[in-house]
Design brief:
With 105 residues, this protein is mostly helical. It has a domain of 54 residues. The longest helix has 37 residues. The N and C termini lie far apart (102 Å).
């Protein structure tokens, strides 16, 4: 009876091996599922980027406003007969410490 139990246990183990570790086993399915999720996230990020690039291309093809905006901000260009004012922010001037005002010891 003991040998029969050992034989049945060995058969069960042999039947379970392909289920867990075989070519189509659960471990491989879990790994593939993880890879699919990661690829879907990557595709979603790239889809957002592609949509933004597509909108920019359409703007550049359809009108001159997008071209003019790029020329102004990226290249610093101005229209003919246009006056350009560059307003700079005032930065505080750091003064050197006065040696006469230093506390005496």
């Amino acid at each position: 009876m003991r040998i029969l139990t050992i034989v049945f246990a060995a058969l069960i183990v042999l039947l379970q091996y392909p289920l867990w570790l075989g070519k189509g086993g659960w471990l491989r399915v879990w790994e593939n599922d993880r890879q699919v999720k990661a690829q879907k996230e990557s595709n979603a990020r790239l889809r957002v980027r592609n949509d933004a690039l597509d909108a920019e291309v359409r703007d550049l093809k359809q009108g001159y406003e997008a071209v003019e905006e790029r020329a102004r901000y990226e290249l610093g260009m101005v229209k003919q007969d246009e006056i350009f004012f560059h307003v700079m922010e005032k930065t505080p001037v750091l003064k050197a410490p006065d040696p006469a005002a230093a506390p005496k010891r």
